[in-house]
Amino acid sequence: MRVIKKYPNRRLYDTEKSAYITIADVLKIIRAGEDFQVVDAESGKDITRTVLVQIITEQEGGASPIFTTDMLTRFIRFYDDQSQEIFGEFLDKNLKMFAEQQKRFQDQMGNLIGSPLQIMQDLTERNLSMWSDMQSQFMKMAMGGRSSGDKKDGAEETPRKKPRK
Question: The whole model's pTM is what?
């Protein structure tokens, strides 16, 4: 598990990279699916949740927030409610289910991307073959049912001029 230390000056230190990082870097770690823990550098206390809330706050302050004001108000009301634990479990299970559905959907889309490309290639090859056949048929009809190499009665045909009157 990747350990990130948070110092009193609010700087984050990635012990794996031996470098200071930003909240944006922590977001990249999360999106990459890496396991991590944020600890207070002085006390050693796990403060991962606090950092995660900070990331959510920053994301919600951006151009396209997920939570409406009404949703957030309802969330806060659940903190003093007897059903707080049930609500937390409900959210957790629904988010896990949503993530699983998203993964299945992405897997299915990944499988489909190969299929449409193959279908388009097959369709293109069939269209080219059909176009070639149509051109051959047209040329035969234009030549009077003969191909350019055909000879009439074994002799070469020479064009004849019509006599003038």
Answer: 0.59
Residue (of 41, 42, 49) closest to 14 by Cα position: 41
User: Domain residues of the chain, as ranges?
Assistant: 1-66, 76-144
Q: What is the DSSP string of 34-82?
A: --EEEEETTT--B-HHHHHHHHHHHHHTSSS-SS-HHHHHHHHHHTTST
Question: Strands 19-21 and 12-14, how do they pair?
Answer: antiparallel
Using CA atoms of 126, 129, 132, 136 in order, give the dihedral in degrees to the nearest 10: -120
The pLDDT score that the predictor gives to residue 145 is 59
Cβ contact 1:35 at 8 Å:
yes
pLDDT (0 to 100) of residue 27: 94
CA atoms of 17 and 21, how far apart (whole Å): 9
User: Residue 94 CA to chain centroid, in angstroms?
Assistant: 22
User: Are 95 and 67 in contact, with CB atoms under 8 Å apart?
Assistant: no
- Cβ partners under 8 Å of residue 37, min gap 6: 1, 2, 3, 4, 46, 48
